[in-house]
Design a protein that fits this description.
47% of the residues lie in helices and 17% in strands. By secondary structure, it is of the alpha/beta class. The strands form 2 sheets. A 5-stranded parallel sheet has the order 3-7-2-8-9, sandwiched between helices. Helix 1 crosses helix 9 and helix 2 runs antiparallel to helix 5. The longest helix has 17 residues. The radius of gyration is 17 Å and the shape is globular. The N and C termini lie far apart (40 Å).
Length: 232
């Protein structure tokens, strides 16, 4: 049997949802916001990247939905959430450091469009959020995973700015990739995420939209803290 496990917490609090495309700064601001609030940081994208990592290592085509669905019952996936980083263990192996390569990133958006994968991963996200005190970031947090979230944000930014940010991240992580390729990959992922039939990347109707193109991280987090404080 496949398994997705999470650690339990004992207190309740707000569920804060942060959505948006790649390169808008979701992970950075979500980690900082969680740290300031003393909440858990839930990187839901890491779960999809973990499945993509397994698909990649199994040598499967992202178009072979049946074969990918067949992998799920043989998979044990655990997420250890913390205030600054979530660690992902697949079949007992910590693969956190292998989840943000260009290959896995590109594959993740294709794998995430497969209904069987989304359904399989949905319970673990909701289980974590059910206890509250969580800042969750992804692409369908406020629309599908936690539609009743207490606070919702949708981050946006200019495509050129987002590509520059993502390219810097990849270079800093030791990946050799050209900027133009990074921009094409990012644009392609945007198109796939926004056009997928299941849980497409769209702002929740009650989400506050923030353009982070020229906003410093500190300004974004401070604004979010003010919004959250009004709900506490």
């Amino acid at each position: 049997m496949g398994e997705v496990g999470v650690a339990s917490r004992g207190k309740r609090g707000l569920i804060i949802a942060i959505d948006g495309p790649a390169g808008v700064g979701k992970s950075t601001v979500a980690r900082l916001l969680a740290l300031r609030l003393g909440y858990l940081y839930l990187d839901t994208g890491a779960l999809y990247r973990a499945v993509a990592w397994k698909v990649h290592n199994a040598g499967l085509s992202p178009d072979d939905h049946l074969a990918i669905a067949a992998l799920l019952p043989k998979t044990t996936l655990q997420m250890a959430c913390g205030p600054e980083q979530s660690h992902v263990l697949l079949n007992g192996r910590d693969i956190t450091g292998e989840l943000r390569t260009p290959a896995v990133s590109a594959l993740a958006s294709m794998v995430s469009a497969i209904p069987a994968v989304r359904e399989w991963l949905l319970p673990v996200q909701r289980q974590i959020g059910a206890e509250g005190c969580v800042v969750a970031e992804g692409r369908d947090i406020g629309t599908r995973v936690f539609p009743e979230a207490d606070v919702k944000f949708f981050l946006e930014a200019d495509a050129e700015v987002r590509a520059t940010r993502r390219h810097r991240e990849l270079v800093a992580a030791g990946h050799s990739v050209q900027f133009d390729q990074t921009k094409r990959d990012l644009t392609g992922r945007d198109d796939r995420d926004r056009s997928r039939a299941v849980a497409p990347l769209i702002p929740a109707s009650d989400a506050e939209r923030l353009d982070t193109s020229s906003m410093p991280v500190e300004e974004v987090v401070s604004h979010m803290m003010a919004v959250v404080a009004a709900r506490l």
